[in-house]
Every structure is written in structure tokens, then in C-alpha cells.
Write a structure and sequence with these properties.
With 954 residues, the chain is of the alpha/beta class. It has 39 helices and 25 strands. The protein has an eleven-stranded parallel β-sheet with strand order 4-14-15-16-17-19-21-22-23-24-25.
């Protein structure tokens, strides 16, 4: 007999889901005209398949068919009777599966009585109704329009509750006004249009790159926390976890690392325009602030200008300020490094003032690492994270996403799609065999370049950065038009390069990233000297470059910039060499915005010019001759240039740079380590071992960046260093190793992690975590299933599972002899997680997870910490636990503590807000009461007086 629950669910969903969702579509989103999303909502096939595959089988499978049919008919009639939803109840009803089930139950009592269901049929009715409610709410929350409006309503409801309890006088602040809500919808549409989607270099063979869906094309990046901490994130946190852990983050990343794309993705998450698991920002209002576009830093009400300038005049007075005050603003500040160094102090003061004025808002700021120190915003509560280079799996994921997008391009033949699939397979294989190319693909920008060139050059690739950029420029300026049979532009490739070089150099020299179009045209006119096509009107020339070259773009307010700063710096470096401005190059070399220009200039220069630049860098410029740290910076820059210089004349210049570098070993900072590693493998033998204890973390970073067999052997020398920063760097190196299992087995297996927490994501590393023999404390973020590798860890004591939507089976953890403590946070698969395999652990933490609390019955849990929708109205859903000694209830007041008397063994109780003394007296063995966030000292003192035998603390 087929699974009856699945069959019943299919029958109900096929007939009911369309009416439920289309009706809700009109209620929640005011009849939006998105026909594609309507179709998506009302064709629940994939969802039904997923739900059906996960449904439980058991004693209900013996129910007679006629009883099944009666129960299914009753469910269908019950849901029909609960429709349509009124405007004022739709959002509330769809908050959770439980709220939807309660709504259906309240409207269908008569139907259920009339059905005359047997006990067996009643069990079927309850099972099918619950699963239908789970499926419907799951689908509703996956849709951007619903999810965002639901999140806003939840926020409003929570503010109403908190404000009512606190008896705030100004009730006008309890909810958004109608005009504010209407403008918020308008603003969200503008932001989605401005920031939605991402561009993948080389996918679209036209000059207006097509935007691709974040859901299908965005490869999630990884970050590591900066600083000395016992939270070891070197193996890589999802970049989305950084702003989830703290409300203020500074994200540092190199050129092309994906900083701006990440902020755009974060904005789309806030608007509900992506389907991201565990979306912490849903319902927030994003304000994207690209600093490069501001001549003076914006006031709060001006934050909408970059993305919604066309509707700025419609904005209700004080709308932005209201969002900042209430804590729903997500301020995304992009490109601190794109300000000239003198303006960065101004930007820091502006951020400090903004945070102090609106501390409840959330902030994410991006910069290149060299632009500001890691503690630049520490005083105002910012946590600093580094964007990590793409791991081997990250590169494979990017290559897959790029080729998937390429295959989706309109007009491709079947043979072309098959050839693209072959390109993808070959490129993945090539990158696995060539570490030099793998290192080039360390950022999304460079990985995209490699994908495009691999396809264009019939699966052959350049070997270094300079060759990579040269091939990319040839592809952009000539090859694509030739391949597409288009008439070539009036300018030759050489003329286009000269124009672009001279324009780029003018930007670098004037420390600019963009200029008004009028100024850009003026500079282009000056740059046309000596060109065969000099008679062409400069405005026409600019238009042709914007349309055909693929390197320039026109942004808001008719301002022109390069599509990426990396291309600007590469072309400016070529012009520096062609113009003979090597003296100016050295004079500006100490400025971090000139770093890449100097390196690429050495790559472009002739052998004798290279030697001259290198010697001048070693000697220092006027700004560094009296500054030893500044001189060291130039020496490291000279060292980085060596990697781009195969031929130097005289060769003695190379030896002098190498000798100067030896004096800078060991590295004394991570930026120093990153610069040192650019010199290549010869540095490996110059680095000291673990006896250099203070510099050990920087040495490991240098070795990991260099890579190669010799570097990995040296890294293994540091496994005994008991320092958090060193251990974190050993974990970070795990991302770069070509053989993750071997590294785990031979290096990390010997590391004593102590009680430090290690954050790990992704099955590609979790599957080898059992080799980490001395690891006691792990946090896994994201979808991990099955849990067998975790259950096999020999020393695992504490495990945290966060944002896991596919895991339901905890039984592998029952095999662990060492596990004592389990945390489940936002683990919400379809169906409920059976807790019986872990009910005898010492400690359980259950937060916002879909769990079966009844399965804990009879367990020997000694400490339980809980915040669960099933306990919103009290603790009755939690079964009796005879060994329970500590109970922590993390619900926020007002909250009923009914049911405490069922745990007479509890000696410690933790709550939020001051509880009623009578509630606490229900625990006869209570010795210690911990009150978090008490409403007032007076109420707390009164509680102490009424509980004289209990120690009350905060």
C-alpha cells in the first residue's frame, strides 16, 4: 500500500493550495502583477515532492482506505471553511504552521464533528492537517513578497507588545503609518531594481552585461574573524553569518574579492528577494551607501539617494530617521578604501556619529585591508572580518555557476550548451592540476576572467596576472566583436588601449574612481593626441567606449567609471610605463591606492626599467626615508613586484630585493605576511619555525598563501603551538590545501584545541572532521546531513547546529561517547526533529528550532535552555524530566511560566524579566534565580524580599 500520509497530503494540496496562496497573494501584496511568481506559487509540485519524501511512516499506515478518504475530505473542507483570509488576519495567521492550524481548527469545528471520524481517522486528520499547514507556511515564507511583509508585521507586533508593557507615552511610534508603509513598498521596488542580480564577467557576449539571479549564480563567500579570540573561524564562516552574529561588522577584502556584491546580496536578503536559509535580515530596510559617489558624506535622510533618487521627492518627512530609530535600518557602507586617505578619518567620524545617534540600526562596512587598520571601528562596537580567498570547493562552485549562467544565455544551440559543459569539466580538471592557476582564481573577479578566457581560447589559459589581464582586454576590445560578426569600431585595439590607459592614469593621478561624463569627455579629448582617429569627436569616442569596450560604465548622475578598479589600475600602470613617469610612480608608491599600480607597472616595464623601479623602492621616497615602517612597506612592495618580473637587468637587482626581504623576516603582521607571500616559494626556506612564538601566526599565514609541498611540510611544524591565532591560521590553511582529508589527518589531528570553539561549514570539510582527534567544541552553520562524521569524533564534548533545514535524524550523535552538550538554533526542517537520541545528554539548548519536545520524555537531561514556539503560552509542552537541575527560559516578557511545578528537582532557574514570586515558589528545590534584563531595580529588589531563601542575580 502506498504511503497514506503522502497520498492524503497530495490530494489536499492539489485542490487547496492554489486557492490559499492566490487568495493570500492578493491580501498580502495588494494584487501584485507578477504572473511568473503566481505560477510558481500555484504549482506546488517540487514542494509536495519534498514534503512527501520526508513524511513519517508508522502505525498510521494500517488505517483503512475509507477512513483515510474521510479524513482527507474533512481536511479539505476544513481549510476551505477557513478561507478567505481577511486583510487584518492574513499576516497573523501565516506567521507559523501552528498559527495557521489554530486558525483552521477555530473555523472548522462543525465540519469535524459532522465527519464523525473514528479514532484512527482523527489521527490521520491531525497528521495531514499539520503537514499541510507546514507546507503552506513554508512556501509562503519562501516567497519574497510574503516573507518581507510577514517580517515587518512580526516586527510591528513585537514593538507593540514591548511598548505596551513599558507603558510608553508616545503611542504614535507603535506602528508604521500608512504613508510610511506605502513608501517602503515603493522604496523596496527601487532598491530591487537598482541592486538586484549580479554580473558574471564574460557570460554575456555583449557590452551591457546581463544580471543573473543571486539564487542561482551567487557563490557564498567565507569570512574569518580578525583578532585574538577563542572563537576559531579560520576554516571559514559563511559571510552571511558575520552580520548575523553582531549588528556592526567591518568586512575587509582585496581587489575583486566580492565586497560590493556581498552588500548587494545582503540588501536583496533584507527585501526577501533571495531564498536564503536562516535569513536574519528579512524585513529590514537596506540603505546602500557607495562612498565613492559622495563629495560630502550623506545625512540620514539622504541615504536613499544612490538607489532611489527618482522617488526621493515622494519620501515622507523623517522616513529614513524613523527606520534608523526603530532598528529596522540595514546601513551598507561600501568602499572606505575608495576614499582618498585624507577623507577616511572623516568617514570614520561620520560612522561614529551615525552609530551613536542610531545604535539600534545594523551596519556593514567594506574596505580593502590596507586602507584601514583592523581595529579602525573597534571603539564603536564593530567586529572585523576578513573575506577569505575562494577555497577549492568555492572555485568549483563558481565555475559551475558561471557555466550554468552561460548555458542559460538566450539563442544558444544544443551543441553550444554541450560544449560549455565540456569546458566546465575541463576547467575544473585543469585548476586541480595547476596550482598556479588555482591561486589566480582566488577571487570571484579573477575566477570569472579565467572562465571567460578558458572558453574563448579553446580551453587554454594564461599563466600569470599580467597575461590574464592582457588576454581579457584582447577579448573585450576585439575578439568578441569579431566572433559575433560585428563591424569593428573606428578605433583599432591599440588606439582603444591608449585612450583607456590615459583616462585610467588621469583617474589614478587625481585619486579618483569616477568623474562626471563632461569631465571624462574632456580628458578623452586630451588623450586623443597622436591617434590616427584623432578627428573623431570626443563625445562620440566616449559613447563608443561605453557601448563597445566593456571596461567603462556610466552610473547615476552621468558619472563614468571603470567596471572594476582592478582594470583601472592595470591600464594606468601601462600608461605610467609608456609615459616614462617612473619617478612619479616611486613618489606615490607609499600610498595604498597605488600598490597595484606599482606591481603592474613593473610587470609592464622593460628589464632595465624594472631594475630601476626596484632599486628606487628599496631606497625609499621622500615620504618614507625618515619613517622606518614606511621604508619596510616599500621593501615589501618591491618583493611583491618580483613575482611579476621574469626578466630583470641587471640580475643583481633581484638579489638585492631578496636580501632586503630577508631582513623583514619573520613577518610581524598579517598585512606583512600577505605582502611577503607574494614573493613566491623562495621565502619558504627563509622563514623560522615555531620557536618564533610571537610571529608564529603570521608565518603560518605566509606559508599557506605561498602553498606547495614545501610550504605544507613547514606548516606541520606549528601544530604544537598553543595560541588561538596560530590555531586559527592552521584552520585557515585547511581551506587552501589541495587535499583536505590528508591535511586533517596529518596536521589538524595533532592540534590541541582546548575549549576553543571551531566554526565549520560545508560537507567538504565536515566529512573529514572526525580526524580532528582533540577537538571538543564545534559549531556547524548551514545544511549538514547526515551527522555521522560528528558522531564519530573521538573528543567532541559540545556541538552547536545552526540554520540547518535538512537535518532531522540525530541518531548518529547517540553513538558519541564524549558528547555532553547539544545546541540547536534555527534548525527548521519540514517535520519535527526527534530528540530521543539525545535526551540523555547533560545539556540541551533549543532555540527557534522545529523539534518534537515530547520525544524528550523520560530523558536524563540536567540542563535545558529553550525558546520554542510550542512554549509560547507556557511550559506545558515540555515533558517531565526527572533529572533536570537547571532550566533557562529564553522567551521575552510578558511570558507565562505555567507548568514549573512539574520539575521539582530544578535548583537553578534563568528567565528574562522579573517573574512573579509565586511562579518561582513552584520549584521547591530552587536555590538560584538568574534574571536577565530586569524591568527595573525596584522590581528585582522586591522579588528578593519575597524569596528570602533564593539567591537572585542578574
Amino acid at each position: 500500500m502506498a504511503d497514506p500520509i503522502s497520498a492524503g497530503l497530495l490530494m489536499v494540496l492539489e485542490t487547496v493550495l492554489e486557492r490559499v496562496l492566490v487568495g493570500l497573494f492578493d491580501v498580502v501584496h495588494k494584487g501584485a502583477r507578477n504572473k511568473r511568481r503566481r505560477r510558481e506559487l500555484t504549482r506546488p509540485g517540487p514542494l509536495v515532492e519534498r514534503v512527501s519524501s520526508e513524511l513519517a511512516r508508522g502505525e498510521l499506515s494500517t488505517v483503512e482506505q475509507h477512513e483515510w478518504q474521510a479524513a482527507v475530505d474533512a481536511v479539505r473542507e476544513s481549510i476551505e471553511a477557513s478561507l478567505p483570509l481577511r486583510d487584518d488576519e492574513a499576516l497573523r495567521v501565516m506567521l507559523t504552521p501552528e498559527s495557521l492550524r489554530a486558525h483552521v481548527a477555530s473555523r472548522s469545528q462543525r465540519i469535524r464533528r459532522a465527519a464523525g471520524l473514528s479514532d484512527h481517522a482523527t489521527a490521520v486528520y491531525d497528521a495531514v492537517l499539520l503537514r499541510v499547514c507546514v507546507a503552506v507556511v513554508e512556501l509562503v515564507w519562501s516567497q519574497p513578497e510574503y516573507a518581507r511583509r510577514l517580517a515587518v508585521e512580526m516586527f510591528r507586533m513585537s514593538r507593540v507588545t514591548v511598548d505596551a508593557v513599558a507603558r510608553l507615552a508616545d503611542q504614535r511610534q507603535l506602528a508604521l503609518t500608512a504613508s510610511h508603509r506605502d513608501f517602503e513598498d515603493r522604496y523596496a521596488e527601487q532598491v530591487a531594481h537598482s541592486l538586484g542580480g549580479l554580473e558574471l564577467f564574460g557570460v554575456s557576449r555583449g557590452r551591457a552585461p546581463r544580471r543573473h539571479s543571486f539564487d542561482t549564480s551567487y557563490v557564498s563567500l567565507a569570512v574569518a574573524r580578525v583578532g585574538d579570540t577563542d572563537e576559531l573561524t579560520g576554516a571559514g564562516l559563511p559571510v552571511s553569518a558575520a552580520p548575523a552574529d553582531t549588528t556592526r561588522v567591518l568586512i575587509r577584502g582585496g581587489a575583486g574579492a566580492g565586497k560590493t556584491t556581498f552588500l548587494r546580496w545582503l540588501a536583496m536578503n533584507a527585501l526577501g528577494e533571495t531564498r536564503t536559509s536562516g535569513n536574519e535580515w528579512l524585513g529590514l530596510v537596506p540603505f546602500f551607501v557607495p562612498l565613492r559617489q559622495y563629495s560630502s558624506l550623506p545625512k540620514p535622510e539622504e541615504l536613499i539617494s544612490p538607489t532611489a533618487a527618482m522617488i526621493e521627492e515622494e519620501k515622507p518627512s523623517g522616513w529614513v530617521t524613523a527606520r534608523l530609530k526603530e532598528g529596522r535600518a540595514l546601513v551598507l557602507v561600501d568602499g572606505v578604501d575608495e576614499l582618498v586617505s585624507e577623507r577616511r578619518a572623516e568617514a570614520r567620524l561620520w560612522l561614529e556619529q551615525l552609530v551613536n545617534a542610531y545604535p539600534q540600526a545594523r551596519y556593514a562596512v567594506t574596505t580593502r585591508p590596507a586602507a584601514v587598520p583592523e581595529d579602525w571601528l573597534e571603539d564603536v562596537g564593530f567586529e572585523t572580518f576578513d573575506l577569505l580567498p575562494l577555497s577549492d570547493k568555492g572555485v568549483r562552485d563558481f565555475v559551475e555557476a558561471w557555466h550554468t549562467a552561460a548555458r542559460d544565455e538566450p539563442g544558444l544551440t544544443r551543441d553550444a550548451r554541450v560544449w560549455l559543459t565540456e569546458c566546465e569539466t575541463r576547467l575544473v580538471g585543469t585548476l586541480a592540476k595547476r596550482p598556479d592557476l588555482r591561486r589566480l582564481a582566488s577571487s570571484p573577479l579573477l575566477a570569472g576572467l579565467l572562465c571567460a578566457l578558458h572558453q574563448d581560447r579553446n580551453m587554454h589559459l594564461p599563466r600569470d596576472r599580467r597575461s590574464l589581464y592582457e588576454a581579457a582586454l584582447d577579448l573585450l576590445l576585439v575578439r568578441w566583436d569579431e566572433d559575433r560578426g560585428l563591424a569593428l569600431p573606428s578605433f583599432s585595439k591599440e588606439e582603444q588601449l591608449v585612450l583607456l590607459q590615459r583616462f585610467a592614469y588621469s583617474l589614478v593621478r587625481n585619486r579618483e574612481l569616477m568623474v562626471p561624463r563632461e569631465e571624462a569627455v574632456h580628458r578623452l579629448g586630451n588623450a586623443m593626441r597622436g591617434l590616427r582617429s584623432h578627428e573623431i569627436d570626443p563625445d562620440d569616442a566616449m559613447q563608443r567606449l561605453l557601448e563597445r569596450a566593456g571596461l567603462l560604465r556610466e552610473v547615476s548622475n552621468e558619472r563614468v567609471q571603470f567596471v572594476h578598479r582592478t582594470f583601472r589600475d592595470y591600464l594606468a600602470a601601462k600608461e605610467v610605463v609608456d609615459a616614462g613617469d617612473l619617478n612619479l610612480l616611486v613618489d606615490r608608491a607609499h600610498l595604498d591606492e597605488w600598490h597595484d599600480v606599482v606591481v603592474m607597472a613593473v610587470a609592464h616595464a622593460r628589464p632595465r626599467e624594472r631594475a630601476r623601479v626596484l632599486m628606487d623602492l628599496l631606497a625609499g621616497n621622500d615620504d618614507t626615508r625618515k619613517d622606518e615602517r614606511g621604508r619596510d612597506k616599500l621593501r615589501l612592495l618591491a618583493l611583491a613586484c618580483l613575482e611579476q618580473a621574469d626578466v630583470i637587468e641587471p640580475e643583481t637587482a633581484r638579489a638585492q630585493v631578496t636580501q632586503a626581504a630577508a631582513a623583514l623576516i619573520p613577518p610581524t603582521s598579517f598585512s606583512h605576511a600577505d605582502a611577503l607571500s607574494e614573493a613566491g616559494s623562495f621565502v619558504v626556506d627563509l622563514l623560522p619555525g615555531p620557536e618564533a612564538a610571537e610571529e608564529a601566526a603570521y608565518i603560518v599565514r605566509t606559508l599557506a598563501n605561498i602553498g606547495g609541498e614545501g610550504a605544507w611540510e613547514r606548516i606541520a611544524e606549528f601544530v604544537a603551538v598553543d595560541h588561538a591565532m596560530v590555531i586559527d591560521e592552521l584552520l585557515r590553511a585547511w581551506r587552501n590545501t589541495p587535499d583536505a582529508e590528508k591535511y586533517a589527518r596529518t596536521v589538524l589531528a595533532k592540534v590541541d584545541f582546548g575549549d576553543r570553539r571551531v566554526d565549520v561549514r560545508g560537507w567538504h570539510r565536515i566529512q573529514f572532521i572526525l580526524h580532528l582527534e582533540k577537538l571538543r567544541y564545534v559549531r556547524c552553520i548551514g545544511n549538514i546531513n547526515p551527522l555521522d562524521p560528528l558522531g564519530a569524533m573521538p573528543s567532541l564534548h559540545r556541538l552547536e547546529l545552526w540554520q540547518n533545514e535538512v537535518m532531522r535524524d540525530l541518531s548518529p550523535l547517540a553513538l558519541s561517547r564524549s558528547l555532553k552538550e547539544l545546541h540547536l538554533s534555527r534548525c527548521r526542517p519540514l517535520g519535527r526533529i526527534d530528540l530521543s537520541p539525545v535526551k540523555d545528554l547533560d545539556e540541551l539548548h533549543l532555540h527557534f528550532s522545529r523539534v518534537d519536545l515530547e520525544s524528550l520524555a523520560g530523558g536524563s537531561v540536567r540542563r535545558l535552555q529553550i525558546r520554542d514556539s510550542a512554549t509560547d503560552g507556557g511550559l506545558a509542552a515540555v515533558p517531565e524530566l526527572p533529572a533536570l537541575r537547571e532550566l533557562a527560559v529564553d522567551h521575552r516578557p510578558p511570558y507565562p511560566l505555567a507548568g514549573l511545578e512539574r520539575w521539582p528537582t530544578v535548583t537553578t532557574l534563568e528567565v528574562f524579566g522579573v517573574p512573579a514570586a509565586d511562579d518561582a515558589r513552584a520549584l521547591p528545590a530552587l536555590e538560584h534565580l538568574v534574571v536577565h534584563q530586569p524591568e527595573s531595580p525596584a522590581r528585582l529588589e522586591e522579588l528578593r524580599q519575597r524569596l528570602p531563601g533564593v539567591t537572585v542575580t542578574t
